[in-house]
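DM between two lab members

TW: hey, do you still have the Nitrogen regulation protein NR(I) entry open?
JB: yeah, one sec
JB: this one, 106 aa:
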Amino acid sequence: MQKGNIWVVDDDSSIRWVLERAITREGLTCKTFEHANDVLSALNSELPDVLLSDIRMPDIDGLSLLKSVKEQHPTLPVIIMTAHSDLDAAVNAYQQGAFDYLPKAF
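TW: and the structure you got?
JB:
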C-alpha cells in the first residue's frame, strides 16, 4: 500500500513540527514549508495527496495560495488552518475550493 503524502505550509515552526510528528506517526509522509512561494515552486515538480495551509502568513496568505493551487491543480485537496477562526474567512475558503477549514486547537 502506498503511503499518503501530506504537505504542510505554516510560518510557525512549532506548528510545522507538531503536524509533521503527528502525520509521520500515522505512517504517512510529510513535507513542510515555511513559505507559500516554496510550495508553489515544489508543485511544479511534485504533487502531494493533501495540502494543509495556514491562512495567515507573510508574503502569500493561505487564501491566495489556495486560489493559485486550485487554478493549476483543481483536484488537489487543500485544508486551510487558522488560529484566528472567523466565519467570513471560513466561507471564503470554502467558496474558493478548500476541502476543509480547521481551527488550530492544538
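TW: got it. The longest strand covers residues 5-9. The helical segments are 13-25, 36-42, 62-72, 87-95.
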